[in-house]
Design a protein that fits this description.
single chain, 4-stranded mixed β-sheet, 5 helices, elongated
Length: 148
């Protein structure tokens, strides 16, 4: 190996390293712009934060809405309760308002819907009533005499 080959290998290694660094930086930047869970420290560094108190059961649908609207959030559990303080950070206040309205609308729709188990129980009762009516009709028909 001569010096020119070594120099060319060093230069190509440096170029490859710079390219990988740019790619990594672009990946980190794109991830930071996407919605999702963050630590409180990273959220605090930005601008506007809004907060809300939520129970553990309502966190899963909230996570879906935050991902959809690219809102970053952080969770802190309240000591001694099953409640969480949720910190939100979005592009601006309008995006946060729109996302929270969508979350509330989804929650209200789910509350208005009757549960599947409740529907099945209603159908089961109806079927039992129909069978009871059929049994009564059969007994009546047996007791009647047919005349020609």
């Amino acid at each position: 190996m001569n010096r020119s080959n070594v120099k060319m290998a060093q230069d190509s290694g440096k170029l490859l390293l710079k390219g990988l660094q740019k790619l990594y930086k672009a990946l980190v930047d794109s991830r930071n712009n996407a919605g999702g869970k963050r630590t409180y420290r990273t959220l605090k560094k930005g601008s506007y934060l809004s907060t809300a108190q939520m129970s553990k059961e309502s966190l899963k649908p909230l996570k879906k809405v935050c991902k959809k609207f690219k809102i970053q959030y952080s969770l802190k559990k309240q000591k001694g309760t099953n409640e969480y303080t949720v910190f939100f950070k979005g592009q601006d206040k309008e995006v946060l308002d729109h996302a929270l309205r969508a979350y509330i609308n989804n929650k209200l729709k789910k509350e208005k819907k009757p549960s599947l188990i409740g529907k099945l129980n209603n159908f089961k009762e109806q079927v039992e009533q129909n069978f009871a009516n059929l049994d009564k009709n059969k007994e009546r028909n047996k007791n009647k005499e047919f005349s020609i």
